[in-house]
Each structure stands twice: as C-alpha cells, then as structure tokens.
C-alpha cells in the first residue's frame, strides 16, 4: 500500500479553551476529525462519496497521547499518516505547534454497510483507486 501523509492547519479558537486557558482535552478529537476529513478530501474520496457508495467508516478505536497543551491563537499542524486500509483504516496523527509535537494519536475505522450495518472487511474499490492515484 502506498504511504500517504497529509497536513492540515488549524488555528485554535477561543471557544476551545477550558477554564485554565488551554485547549480542553476533548477538542483535540475534533482537530483529528477535521484533519481526517481533509485527508479524505485530498484523496478525492470523501465521507459523502463513501456514503453514496453504501459504506460508512465509523471510529471503532482511538488512542491519544497528550504531550503538551495548545493555547488560544496557536496555529497547529495535524499530520495524518495512512497506516492500514484493510480490514480497517488505521491513521496515525501527530499534532505540532511550531514544529513541537504536542499530541500523537491513532484511529481505527471499520467499514460498515449503510444498508444493514454489517461489517465489511474490504476497502471499496473507489477508495483503493483514490489512494493509488493520490499525488501530493
């Protein structure tokens, strides 16, 4: 499988802060989701495309390691690295602030049929082609 790495910029908004004026830990999950959507958009095979093909990819597992807190106004870079495609999509993430890693994470997404909710163990052909065709 071809290795794909994408980067997404996110500027920390005020409303993501907790009472200690740092990003509330749960908001990093939102940043991962934003980067993951951007990842699939860059592949030119989005969640809408998947759904239209009768497939959903819900998160089945997520691991996060918090290293350092982000603050209001910081520009973060979220790096997505495709690690596996079948039987599940596994993506590794690194979040950086000024080239300093502040979080690392992994997600596993299982392919599920929109029609009946059954687990699918093969990636859709259009997703495989999108990965093969991807150029940075």
Description of the structure:
There is one protein chain. With 136 residues, this protein is of the alpha+beta class. The protein has a single domain, classed as Thiol Ester Dehydrase, Chain A, CATH 3.10.129. It contains 3 helices and 7 strands, in the order E-H-H-E-E-E-E-E-E-H. It has helices at residues 27-43, 47-52, 125-133, and strands spanning 5-11, 55-56, 59-66, 75-84, 88-97, 100-113, 119-120. Strands 1, 2, 3, 4, 5, 6 and 7 form a 7-stranded antiparallel beta sheet that branches. Strand 5 (88-97) and strand 6 (100-113) form a beta hairpin. It is elongated and about 45 Å long.
List the helices and strands and how they pair.
Layout: E1 5-11, H1 27-43, H2 47-52, E2 55-56, E3 59-66, E4 75-84, E5 88-97, E6 100-113, E7 119-120, H3 125-133
Antiparallel strand pairs: 1-4, 2-6, 3-6, 4-5, 5-6, 6-7
Summed up, what is this model?
The protein has three helices and seven strands; from the N terminus they run E-H-H-E-E-E-E-E-E-H. It is of the alpha+beta class. Strands 1, 2, 3, 4, 5, 6 and 7 form a seven-stranded antiparallel beta sheet that branches.
